[in-house]
Write a structure and sequence with these properties.
Blueprint (H helix, E strand, L loop, with lengths): L4 H7 L1 H7 L2 H10 L5 E6 L5 H8 L5 E8 L2 H17 L3 E4 L4 E5 L4 E8 L2 H7 L4 E7 L10 H6 L2 E18 L4 H16 L9 H11 L3 E7 L2 E3 L10 H16 L7 H16 L4 E12 L5
Parallel strand pairs: 1-2, 1-6, 2-5, 6-7
Antiparallel strand pairs: 3-4, 4-5, 7-10, 8-10, 9-10
Helix pairs in contact: 1-10, 10-11
This protein binds S-adenosylmethionine.
S-adenosylmethionine binds next to β2.
Length: about 300
């Protein structure tokens, strides 16, 4: 199988659509200032959240800045955003490689693609947004020190979604002790990455956010739950599951505490379960809507 990160982000869309906490989303809609608004999304990947917010009619008039450090993602976004916008019946104008406008009678969204490290972007950003979005991103960062820097990007709201929170589960389980060990070690790799990360970032965000004076307007679970329906995985979720196992393989191969053969057998059995549409995967995560009280 070929492992492509943009393809993984595409395959994650339907999983995230189900997972996103709808009470927190409702709170976002209620608290969003009247449009036009400025949105900055950090760790934006290929632009799946922009697509979702257009599809869900949350944004209509906006300036939307997508920041991601991976060139492959930004290049993919530059080609893919016009494609999905056109398919949705929107007109598209391009202003160079990094500027797009998607619009119809009800929508006018001016998009800027920034290939940059989020913290370099923070240094040069002049005008804060009305809404900061960080989706499946905060659990990769050093905390709590990253939070005040990120929140400086918004003068009002931050929607902080899909923050991993300490539970990974695969079913069916043949060897509970091995399963527990793989889960524990996988979480440990998140906690010991040199670039930062926290396997319990969801629950820790309550304290971190309160610690910097941000007001939590809404919070709730946004668990990934992936299982076959009618004997088939939905959408491209078979690829999504394969990529999740790829993350496990990349993170844990060669780990001294883990028996190499036992782990190889585990991977191969889990892959066979995907082929048979038997594998059930759950990851516990949390969403937050926050008001930045220190702004202005
Ligand atoms: C798990 S992906 C999520 C992408 C996107 N939010 C989504 O869910 O489709 C995390 C993203 O953060 C980006 N990233 C990681 N560290 C970053 C940094 N310091 N600055 C900007 N982007 C970063 C990666 O390139 C990747 O696209």
């Amino acid at each position: 199988m070929e492992y492509s990160f943009p393809h993984y982000l595409l395959s994650k869309q339907s999983v995230d659509d189900r997972a996103l906490n709808k009470d927190v989303l409702e709170s976002l809609k209620v608290n969003l200032p009247s449009q036009p608004i400025k949105i900055i999304e950090v760790g934006a990947g290929i632009g799946t959240m922009l697509r979702r917010l257009l599809r869900w009619n949350v944004i209509r008039q906006a300036e939307y800045v997508l920041v991601d450090e991976m060139a492959e993602n930004v290049e993919y976004a530059s080609a893919w955003i016009p494609q999905f916008a056109t398919e949705a019946g929107l007109s598209v104008e391009r202003g160079g490689q990094s500027q797009l406008r998607v619009f119809d009678e009800a929508h006018d969204v001016r998009i800027r693609l920034e290939r940059a490290d989020a913290f370099d972007f923070i240094q040069k950003n002049k005008e804060p947004a009305d809404l900061l979005i960080a989706h499946a991103f905060l659990d990769l960062l050093p905390m709590p020190e990253s939070l005040p820097k990120l929140l400086s990007l918004t003068k009002d709201l931050a929607w902080l979604t899909i923050n991993f929170d300490g539970v990974t589960s695969f079913e069916p389980t043949a060897d509970a002790a091995l399963e527990e060990k793989i889960e524990r070690l996988y979480h440990k790799t998140m906690d010991t990455r040199p670039t930062g990360g926290d396997s319990k970032s969801g629950r820790h965000l309550f304290g971190h956010l309160q610690g910097i004076g941000a007001e939590i307007l809404s919070a709730g679970s946004s668990d990934w739950v992936v299982h076959a329906v009618g004997g088939k995985y939905l959408e491209d979720e078979k690829y999504f599951l394969s990529f999740i196992l790829h993350f496990f393989e990349e993170s844990l191969t060669g780990y001294v505490e883990l028996n190499t053969d036992a782990f190889a057998d585990w991977l191969s059995e889990r892959r066979a379960q995907i082929e048979r549409c038997e594998l059930v995967y759950v990851a516990h995560q949390m969403d937050f809507l926050v008001k930045n009280r220190s702004a202005g």
